[in-house]
Please model this.
Amino acid sequence: MFNRTLRCTVSVPARRRRSLPGLAGLLLLAGLTLLPGPAPASGIDCAKAKTPVERLICADPKLQEADAALADAFAAALAASPDQAAVRTAQRSWLATRNACADAACLTARYAARQQELAALADGPRQALLAERAGLKARLGWPADCEADFQETYSPEGSGLPLLTTGVDSYDLGRGRRLFLIQCAQAAYQSAYVAMETGTESGPARLLRFPTADAEGGKITRRLDDSLLGNPEFNAAARTLTILTKARGVGDCGTYAVYGFETPGAPRALELRVRDCPKNPGKYLPPEQWTLVKTP
Model:
């Protein structure tokens, strides 16, 4: 279960908000305001309609809506396809069949059929990524609430962000061990993750818990957390993970940590620093100069 606590208004999936217990003084999921989706494409400009088909479309509000929706579907299919030239060629062929229509019924049928074709093209890469992620989920077994939040974030019926990767990164820890960072939610300037570790044995992957700390009101609170919030960076040479958890967008306060993985299943904080959000920020203080927290 995730152990982050909200202390300001943020936009996160409702399921994640329900899963976060009320531990006073912990750092919020600050900045989880969802990124905007792509701008909609435009259809026929009726002020410039010249052909009989264009005039027929512009005289019918439902056909105008279908044309605008198809423009959006074409843009989505074009963005998702690895062969954009083929998508454009197919669209030109479809336009020829559309332009052969003589009435609204023909146009309605043409638009409906093409809408389905473009939707399938746009969703193909997404479905492939989801299938790959499902295979990794079956193998690693990360928490169900993390997966539910990910699906909600990238679902067309949910937040609707475009899915570009599986959201799972893997790193070599040496001696047959691997670290997996699994994205649970995407936000404006940072994301939520869980981390799993596999070893040389055939047993299940381990959900890792990280020593961390928060600063609020001059008080530092230490704890173990099974989620990571920020933009983690893995150093392959040193086999360390660095993550900055921003308490607000400018990144002048929050938690900064560097983790090592010498002991299987037990990440160690090699460096842990915190800073409470100042009321008067003043000169920017780099995270590497924040207050150092003593760790065991």
